[in-house]
Amino acid sequence: MPLYTSLRRIKLYMANDNYWLKIANYDLKTAEAMLKSKRYLYVGFMCNQSIEKILKGIYSDKFNQLPPRIHNLARLLKLVELGNDIPKDLLEVLNELNPLNIAARYPDQQLDIIKELDFDYSSKILENTRRLFKWLKTKR
Predict the structure, then answer these.
(1) Of 134, 16, 129, nearest to 73 (Cα)?
(2) How far apart (Å, rounded) are the C-alpha atoms in residues 39 and 46?
(3) In 3D, which of 63, 49, 64 has the Cα closest to residue 132?
(4) I want to staple 122 with a disulfide (CB 3.0 to 4.6 A). Which of 43, 50, 64, 81 is the partner?
(5) How far is residue 29's CA from residue 77's CA, in Å, rounded to a whole number?
(6) 28 by DSSP, 3-state: which?
(7) Are the CB atoms for 95 and 119 separated by under 8 Å?
(8) What residue spans define the domains of the chain?
(9) C-alpha pair distances (Å), 136 with each of 28, 51, 55, 117, 133
């Protein structure tokens, strides 16, 4: 199969909202597995990823196109026009998750944040992510 055809099929698949919801759920389950295995840095990272992907699914549904290749959760929230609707406590969760994408990827950031992470904090992040995820799922 020519590369062009393969890329086109991938884009069509990614435009399907089921793709985004499935991968967002997968990432949330991965965050749970990371908590069980005490890999706290990756609990936050996978929570971030699950919210990013459900927001991209909302974008895909709303605009019937692939979402932009950005990772800033606040920006994605604004693009899907939910910035004014989100409850304040869930906005705080989103803002707490936003930097965890960067922190898990860059070693100098990892050293700073890993000191802060423990089971209690990671459990709280996961619990709050579930609440945010549930709210976002109703906006699809």
Answers:
(1) 129
(2) 11
(3) 49
(4) 43
(5) 22
(6) helix
(7) no
(8) 3-137
(9) 13, 8, 7, 26, 5
pLDDT at 114: 72
User: Which positions ≥6 away from 18 have C-beta within 8 Å?
Assistant: none
Match 């590369």 to its residue by tokens.
3
Question: Which CATH number does 3-137 carry?
Answer: 1.20.120.330
User: How many other β-carbons are positioned within 10 Å of the β-carbon of residue 48?
Assistant: 26
DSSP for 52-121, written as a single string: HHHHHHHHHHHHSSPPPS---HHHHHHHTT-TTTS-HHHHHHHHHHTTHHHHHH-HHHHHHHHTT--HHH
Token reading at 1: 């199969």
- DSSP letter, residue 16: S
CA distance 76 to 139: 14
**pLDDT exceeds 70 at position 63:** yes
- Residue 8 vs residue 26, higher pLDDT: 26
At 10 the pLDDT is 59
Go through 80-103 and write b for each residue having 16 or more CB atoms within 10 A of its CB, e for each that does not.
bebeeebeeebbebbebbbebbeb
